[in-house]
What we know:
The protein has 294 residues and is of the alpha/beta class. The protein has helices spanning 50-61, 80-83, 86-93, 176-187, 205-233, 243-250, 259-275; strands spanning 14-20, 29-35, 39-43, 69-74, 97-99, 114-115, 121-124, 130-136, 145-149, 154-158, 193-196, 202-203, 241-242, 279-282, 285-288. The chain has seven helices and 15 strands.
Amino acid sequence: MIRPQPVGPGVRGVEAFPARTPTLPPATHTNSYALGGGEVLLVEPATPYEDERREWLAWARGFASQGRSLVAIAVTHHHADHVGGARFFAAELGLPVWGHAEAAPRLPGVPLARRLADGEVVRLGGPEPTALRVLHTPGHAPDHLCFLDEAQGALVCGDMVAGEGTILIDPREGDMAEYLAQLDRLAGLGARVALPAHGGPIGAPEALFRRYIAHRLGRERLVVAALEAASEAGAGGAGGTSIEALLPVVYADTAPLVWPLARLSLEAHLIKLEREGRVVRREDRWRRAAGTGA
């Protein structure tokens, strides 16, 4: 693997550094990004592995020879495959760590020197100054941030989408409705290229955001149809149907090996439908709400 990597023609002052991390397959690496042609913000201090950390540090320290200066390390969110090197890199490079306020209680031992808020603009000096608009995009995680270089149309989008694999919405901290709303927001930005944490740069990102939304809503329709079919068949009686019974129906197109992760997404879909008044839960069983359409 060649490191660092360019992120696309016409995108200046941005480099990607993919480092091996304990992430979900099929991904094996998490991309860190250097943003800014003079002052540099490093995003995603991801890797916990010593050999990868050595190369990451050499990459980061190499900007000095280009006349560029490091100002901070930013985290898109607190998941382990994104912050595995945060404390180490901050100490080695003498840099502050920035992130959303919701990240603070989720990053023990990593104090946030700057709490970034939605709509805030991070300004990086240099021959061609860089302005990065901060976007708080919860749904995958409550502290999730994206960074938009509006002048170049480059969007660092963390785990909102992926260049490989998919995005898990874990109901223990994620929110399917919020995730879909934030995807729609990102689709409306007019970004020219999206820079995900996993996989290569994404051209025409609006189309991908729209496909993600369509895919999730398609899965939601399968959930509703499965509940309807179970009700008509009398499965589970008036008490409803379990997630375990719904899983092989809703995710029939998915290998059983990944059903444990699919189960989490299924539950996230059901919670969204419950909040919308379209399904009803009693203990661990689910059924269509009376009088609702498909």
